[in-house]
Design the sequence.
C-alpha cells in the first residue's frame, strides 16, 4: 500500500474514533444537541474563516447544492441519528454495531451504483470484520435491558444509511470539490441544522464550565477537521468499499481511547474482537501484487537480432 494511502487509512481510523470520546466528554457537561450546535458553529467559523482567507474562490451553484446535501447527510444525519439514539437509551455498543453494518451495505451497492468491483476476498474480509465488531460490543449488548422505545433502534440504521448515501453522492458528484472546499460548507450546513434543533429544544445556551469548551475543541479539531477530512480523502483514494471497511476498526480503536483517557479497560472479548477486526480489514483492503508475465513482443522489439536467431531454431 502506498505511504500516502496508509497515512490516510490510519488517520481515518484514529480521528473517526475520537468522535465517540469527544461525545462522552461533551455530554458529561451538556445535552447532546448543545454539544453538536456549538461544535459545528465553532467548526464553521474556524474552517469558513480559513477558507475565506486562503481558498476564497467562486464555487459553482451545482457544487454548492451537492455539497450541502452531502454535509446534511454525512454530519447532520449520521451524528444526529447516533447521538439521539444513545440519548433515548439505546446502548452505545448497539448503536456502534448497527452503524458498522455500513461496510456490508456499501459492498452490496458499490458494484451496482458505482461500478466498483467487490471481490470474494473483500466480501470475506467485510464479513470477518463485522464478526469482530460484534465481539467488541458484546459486553455492552449484554449489560441488561434498556428503557429505549422500540422505534429508537431505527435511528442508528437511519444514521448508517445517511452516511452511506453521502458517500455515494460524493462519488457521483458532477461538480466535486476538494475536501478543503467541501468540509467548511458541510460544517455550515450542520451548524444551521443543529442550531435549529437546540433552539427548539431550549438547549442552545452553553454551560459555564471549561470542560464543555474543552470537549468542543476536541470534537472540532480531531473529530470534524481530522475525522471528516480523512474520510473524504479516503473515499477518493480507497473508494467506498475500502473506506467503509476501515470503519470496522473504529469500535476497537475507541476502546483504546477510552482506556487511555477514562481507565475503561477492555475485556478479553473486546481484545479478541480487535484482532478479528484487523484480520478482516486487512483481507478487505490490502491488495495483492499483480505479477505480470513478461511481454515477449516488447523484448523481441528491443532485440531484433535475437528474434531472428530464435526463429531459426528448429522445433523439437
Sequence:
Amino acid at each position: 500500500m502506498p505511504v500516502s494511502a496508509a497515512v490516510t487509512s490510519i488517520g481515518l481510523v484514529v480521528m473517526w474514533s475520537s468522535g465517540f470520546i469527544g461525545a462522552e466528554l461533551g455530554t458529561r457537561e451538556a445535552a447532546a444537541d448543545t454539544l453538536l450546535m456549538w461544535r459545528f458553529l465553532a467548526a464553521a467559523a474556524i474552517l469558513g474563516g480559513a477558507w475565506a482567507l486562503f481558498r476564497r474562490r467562486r464555487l459553482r451553484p451545482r457544487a454548492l447544492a451537492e455539497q450541502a446535501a452531502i454535509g446534511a447527510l454525512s454530519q447532520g444525519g449520521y451524528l444526529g441519528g447516533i447521538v439521539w439514539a444513545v440519548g433515548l437509551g439505546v446502548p452505545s455498543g448497539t448503536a456502534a454495531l448497527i452503524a458498522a453494518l455500513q461496510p456490508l451495505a456499501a459492498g452490496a451497492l458499490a458494484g451496482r451504483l458505482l461500478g466498483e468491483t467487490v471481490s470474494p476476498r473483500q466480501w470475506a474480509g467485510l464479513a470477518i470484520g463485522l464478526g469482530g465488531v460484534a465481539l467488541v460490543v458484546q459486553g455492552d449488548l449484554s449489560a441488561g435491558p434498556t428503557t429505549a422505545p422500540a422505534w429508537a433502534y431505527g435511528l442508528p440504521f437511519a444514521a448508517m444509511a445517511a452516511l452511506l448515501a453521502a458517500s455515494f453522492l460524493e462519488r457521483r458528484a458532477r461538480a466535486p470539490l476538494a475536501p478543503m472546499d467541501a468540509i467548511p460548507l458541510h460544517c455550515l450546513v450542520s451548524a444551521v441544522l443543529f442550531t435549529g434543533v437546540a433552539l427548539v429544544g431550549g438547549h442552545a445556551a452553553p454551560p459555564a464550565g471549561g470542560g464543555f469548551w474543552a470537549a468542543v475543541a476536541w470534537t472540532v479539531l480531531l473529530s470534524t477537521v481530522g475525522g471528516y477530512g480523512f474520510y473524504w480523502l479516503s473515499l477518493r483514494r480507497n473508494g467506498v468499499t475500502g473506506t467503509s471497511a476501515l470503519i470496522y476498526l473504529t469500535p476497537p480503536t475507541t476502546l483504546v481511547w477510552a482506556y487511555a483517557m477514562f481507565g475503561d479497560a477492555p475485556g478479553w472479548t473486546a481484545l479478541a474482537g480487535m484482532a478479528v477486526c484487523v484480520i478482516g480489514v486487512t483481507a478487505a483492503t490490502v491488495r495483492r501484487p499483480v505479477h505480470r508475465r513478461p511481454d515477449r513482443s516488447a523484448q523481441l522489439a528491443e532485440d531484433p537480432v535475437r528474434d531472428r536467431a530464435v526463429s531459426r531454431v528448429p522445433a523439437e
About this structure: The radius of gyration is 23 Å. The chain has 14 helices and no strands.
